[in-house]
Amino acid sequence: MRLPNRPARRHQAVATDSYVEEPARFAPGGDARDWVIHPAADDAAVQPPEVPELYGQALQALAQRAEESVSLSYDLPFCAAHCLCCDRAILAAQPPEVIDDYVDGLIAETQAIAARIGRQRDVLQLHLGGGSASELDDAQLSRLLESVRDAWRVPDDAEMSIDCDPRRVGWMHLQLLHSLGFSQVTFGVLDLDGHVQKAIGRRHSAELIDDACEVARSCGIECVNLSLLIGLPHQSEESWRTTLRRLVAMAPDRLTLGRYRHRPRMAPGQYAIDPDALPDEHECRRLLAMAGEVLGEAGYRWIGSDHFVLENDPLALAQDQGRLRHGPLSYTGTPCTPLLAHGVHALSEVDGHVFHNTPSLAAWRQAVRHGLPAVAAAQPLTPCEQLRRAARQHLLCHLELPEHAVRGGLEPAYERLAALEQDGLVQRLDGRLVVTPAGRLALPMLCDEIDRARVACVDGMSGLPS
């Protein structure tokens, strides 16, 4: 069986300026990022966001470091259909003119940022996703990547990754991705069990996923990542083991495990999911433990809370050499660089300060069309936030937390974590807390204990939408 080259699009009767919105998104990797793409409005009646002063200062400082490398991300809020379990702000089944208009905005945003910080820079990482980049046609993808290369240098060894729907790609499309420089593709799988798929409104066969992996490899894509979700309706240990074994047989280079969060008030599509069919917390941890067991036996190394990679993977090598870090674009072995994010509600990070693009699609378009920043909010890097990030980073990458890493404000969080020794989640050894196998299953919860330290700290936040 072979995938069709480019499946025909299913168009909705949607005008260029009328967008179908969904209310929330959760960013994988443990960082909550709830947001809303605001309802569409007449662009002429919408004002660009009021840009926080800190953003201009951060870009000015970056401009003075003319040859410093950067990382780029492009948020693409498009999918062929909106799965019932999804809590991301997705625009489903959009016609080509809507997507083309959005790509024009991304290109304009790229040019505006490059003009402010200078063009003599290397791009170490580049990611396209958020929804599915396979909703962009070949011409749109080519135009977007051409604008990036016009703005900055993209070395041959840059980490370039892209999120695609395995049901919407074919040989020609994957060949194009390879020719554009993408070395990693992530296919959303979620689960292979038919009963689970029916409950979340997403259908695809194991054979289709297997074929997508094979075609990607034949096109020269070096890293094929399959993403799954734990906690979906009707997931059982038996069905989950079957899914894992089928995926292992496909020999992906990486697998990532997200966690389903049932929040129908923020994602109304989830009202169609029977909450009584969802596995509880104890069952979810058993499913995660089973993933660790099955994938470990197949030769995958468990990194952090949600990544499984082969022993020859660059992430495994980075961990062995002490270079592994958990950045805004997930795990990487590349040096820390400013992240310049593009698109509606994209998150940038420059010198530790986090900047939020506006969640209003109309306001974002107004800004980029006039060459203005689309940033609407800034989260300054405070001393307490710096401590939290360093502590969380150490936990996620090394599964331990040295006592000296919490001095200066996180001592209460350290003691709360240390108290979990009685539950078997951590162990005190030589002035550090070491995560146990049981604690590995609760790693996101351990990181949450660090984040709770914000209660005792004063963090700055400016320009956040109410």
Structure report:
This protein is α/β, with parallel strands linked by helices. It has two domains: 337 residues, tm_1862 like domain (pyruvate-formate lyase- activating enzyme, Alpha-Beta Horseshoe); 74 residues, Arc Repressor Mutant, subunit A, CATH 1.10.10. The protein has 14 helices and 19 strands. The strands form five sheets. The chain has a nine-stranded mixed beta sheet, sandwiched between helices. The chain has a three-stranded antiparallel beta sheet with strand order 14-15-16. Strands 17-19-18 form a three-stranded antiparallel beta sheet.
CATH architecture descriptor text of the largest domain: Alpha-Beta Horseshoe
- Integer-rounded radius of gyration: 22 Å
Shape: globular
Structural class of the helices, strands and pairings? alpha/beta
* Helical proportion, percent range: 25-40%
Number of E-state strands: 19
Sheet with the most strands: spatial strand order: 9-10-8-7-6-5-4-1-13
**Tally of discrete structural domains:** 2
Residue share in β-strands = 15-25%
